């Protein structure tokens, strides 16, 4: 019974870890239940964070902002977008 509890608990942790990298936590939870939490965790360790997750963290830390024209990330103190040439006011 305790083994089943820890199996489910580790599967949930795999789901949270995948979600923190920008992937579907529910899908990785199911993967961990069907295969093994160890295989699911190794899979999440191998995967790199998604581009959206990296960009969201950069914006949240205040290091970068989005250009309103091309929607690319630029440094916060940039006066001109390096991608499209848009001038920030």
Structure description:
The protein is mainly α. The chain folds into two domains: 1-49, no CATH class; 50-89, no CATH class. The chain has four helices and two strands, in the order ααααββ. The chain has helices spanning 2-20, 25-34, 37-46, 51-61; strands at residues 64-66, 73-75. It has a two-stranded antiparallel sheet. β1 (64-66) and β2 form a beta hairpin. The longest helix has 19 residues, at 2-20.
Termini Cα gap: 63 Å
- Total number of strands: 2
Q: Kindly provide the radius of gyration, computed on alpha-carbon positions and rounded to a whole number of angstroms.
A: 19 Å
Proportion in β-strands: 5-15%
Structural class: mainly alpha
Low-confidence stretches: none
Tell me the strand order in the biggest sheet: 1-2
Helix share of residues? 55-70%
- Indicate the mean pLDDT: 91
Major sheet details: 2 strands, antiparallel
Shape: rod-shaped
The sequence of SSEs as H and E is HHHHEE
Oligomeric category: single chain
**Helix segment tally:** 4
**Whole-number count of domains:** 2
């Amino acid at each position: 019974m305790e083994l089943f509890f820890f199996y489910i608990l580790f599967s949930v942790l795999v789901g949270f870890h995948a979600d923190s990298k920008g992937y579907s936590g529910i899908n990785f939870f199911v993967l961990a239940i069907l295969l093994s939490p160890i295989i699911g965790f190794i899979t999440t360790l191998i995967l790199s964070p998604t581009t959206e997750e990296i960009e969201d963290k950069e914006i949240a830390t205040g290091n970068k902002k989005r250009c309103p024209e091309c929607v690319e990330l630029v440094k916060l103190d940039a006066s001109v977008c390096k991608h499209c040439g848009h001038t920030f006011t």
